[in-house]
Amino acid sequence: MKVAIYCRLSEEDRNKQFETDDSGSIQNQKAMLLQYAMEQGWELYNIYSDDDYTGSDRRRPEFNRLLKDAEQHRFDIVLCKTQSRFTRELELVEKYIHGLFPVWGIRFVSIVDNADTANKGNKKSRQINGLVNEWYLEDMSENIRSVLKNRRENGFHIGAFALYGYKKDPDQKGHLIIDEEAAAVVREVFTLFSQGYGKTAIARILNDRGVPNPTEYKRQQGLRYKQPTMKNSTLWKYFAISDMLINEIYIGNMVQGKYGSISYKTKQNKPRPKSQWYIVEGTHEPIIDRELWDRVQAMIAHRAKPFKVGTIGLFARKARCASCGYVMRSSKMSPAKGGKHYLQCSNRYVAKDACEGAFISLERLEELVLAEINRLSAEYLDKDELEQNIEFCNNLQAQKKSVLASLASYRKKIEEYAKGIRDIYMDKVKGLITESDFVELSKDFTVQKERLERVASDSEKQLAEIDEKIELGDNRRELILQYTNLEHLNREIVEMLIDYVSIGRRIPGTRNVPIEIHWNF
C-alpha cells in the first residue's frame, strides 16, 4: 500500500531562519505521520506540505498537486494528522473524502481524530468533524473581521508589510515610521510630477538610475515578500507611480480596507467603494507636505499629464473648444498620415448637436502661441508703465464681463432643461405619457443639463481666478522679462503664462484656425 502524507500549517513560524525552511510544526507532523505509516507497513509515495496556508484556502499548491496525483491513483492512502489539516470545509469533505476518493480507490486516514474511510462506521463522525470545522472557520472569520475593523477604525496599521517609504515601528504595534531611503524616492516622484514629468518618464528616470521598485526593495531589505517571476519584475512601472501619487498615507493619513474578501472560504478580494474605506487622519509622520500634495492632486484631477517639448501634454487642460468650452483631447495620427499629434474637441460625440467641433495640430498651435508671446513681449516692454496698468485692468474687467455673461447664459439654459424635465414628469404623473416615454424624452434633457452644469462650474472657477488676478495687480513685466525671444515652449512656460487657449473651427477654404489666448497676467 502506497501512502501520500499531507501536512499543513496556517500560521507563520517565527523561528524560521530561511523562507524555504519547513516550520517546526510541519517537521513534527512529518515525523508523526512517517512513524505511523512505518508501523502500518505502508510504503511512502510522497510528502505534500503546505506552510502558511489556511484550511479554507483552495489554492494551496501542494494540496492541489495531491488531488491531481490521487485522481491518477499514484498512491492508495492519504494520511494526515487531523481531518482539518486536509480541509476545514464541509463541502470539500463531502466532495473528496466521501465522494471522489472512493471513486479513485483512495483511502483517507487522519490519526488524531480517528477518521478512516476504510471504517464505514465512522462516516458520521467525519461529517460532524467537517461541520464543526466549518463552524470554526465561520466564527473565526467573524472574530477576525471584528478585531481588524476595530483596529482600522482606530488608525492602526494591520498589513503584513508597510507601504513603500515607511516601515513598521518596532516599539509600537500598528504604527508606521519613515524609512528615509525609500522616502527620498517618494519625495522625488512627487516633485518630478509637479515639475511636469509624466508617470512613464518618472519610471524611466528611476530605472535608468537602477533604483529598485517597491517589491524588489522589500526583498533586498530581507522581508519575506513574494517576488513576482515575470520579466522585468524589478523595474518601476507606470501604475506604481500612478498609485503612489494618490495614496494619502504619504500625507500622514492611514487608509485601509480598499479591498474586501468575497467570503471566508476564499482569499479572493474585490475592490470596495471609497465610502467603505477606513481613513484616519494624522496617524503617522507625513513624507509629503500638504502644499506639494495639493499641487499634485490638482494636476491629476485636471488630467494634466505633462510631457516633454513637442508631445501631447504640452497644452493638456489648456486648450478649449471655442464652440462649447470643453477641454480638447489629444490624439495621434496613424504613421501613414505622419504620426503627428493633434487636439480635437471630443464633445461633438457626447450628444447630438452638442458641438460643431474644433481641431488643430499640436505643432501649429505651438507656432501660433510662440508668435503671440514674442510679439507681446516686444510690444509690451516698450509701453509706458501707467498705460500698461490701465490696459491690464481693462483686459481683466473685459474678461470678467465676458465670463459673467456666459455664466448667466449657462444658468438660464440649465433652468430651462430642469423645467423641461419637471414638465415631462408631470405629464407622466397625469398619465399623458408612459414610463418608457418619460425615460426616453428626459434622457436628452438630462445629458444636456449635466453638460452645461460642468461648463458652468468651469466658468465659476475661471471667474474666481480673474478676481484673484485683479486683486494681486499687474506683475506682467517681471513675467515677460523671463520669457523673451522664445524658440520653443515647454510645460513650465505654458503653466506660467497661459490660463487657457480658446480654439475655433478652421475657416472654410483656408488652413487658418482662429485661436484666442487667455493669459495668466
Task: Please give a structural write-up.
The chain contains 15 helices and 17 strands. The chain has 521 residues and is of the alpha/beta class. The strands form six sheets. Strands 2-1-3-4-5 form a five-stranded mixed beta sheet, with helices on both faces. The chain has a three-stranded mixed beta sheet with strand order 12-16-17. A three-stranded antiparallel beta sheet has the order 13-14-15. Helix 4 (90-104) packs antiparallel against helix 5, helix 6 (180-194) packs across helix 10 (290-301) and helix 12 (385-429) packs antiparallel against helix 13 (435-472).
Layout of secondary structure:
Layout: E1 2-9, H1 24-40, E2 43-51, H2 61-71, E3 77-80, H3 83-86, H4 90-104, E4 107-110, E5 115-116, H5 123-153, E6 166-168, E7 176-178, H6 180-194, H7 199-208, H8 214-220, H9 238-245, E8 254-256, E9 259-261, E10 269-271, E11 278-280, H10 290-301, E12 319-321, E13 329-332, E14 341-344, E15 359-361, H11 362-380, H12 385-429, H13 435-472, H14 476-482, H15 491-497, E16 498-503, E17 515-519
Parallel strand pairs: 1-2, 1-3, 3-4, 12-16
Antiparallel strand pairs: 4-5, 6-7, 8-11, 9-10, 13-14, 14-15, 16-17
Contiguous low-pLDDT stretches (5 residues minimum) are: 12-19, 228-232, 304-312
Please state the CA-atom Rg, rounded to the nearest Å: 34 Å
Largest sheet: 5 strands, mixed
Strand content: 5-15%
Arithmetic mean pLDDT: 77
Strand order of the largest sheet: 2-1-3-4-5
Structural category is alpha/beta
Features:
521 residues; alpha/beta; 5-stranded mixed sheet; 3-stranded mixed sheet; elongated
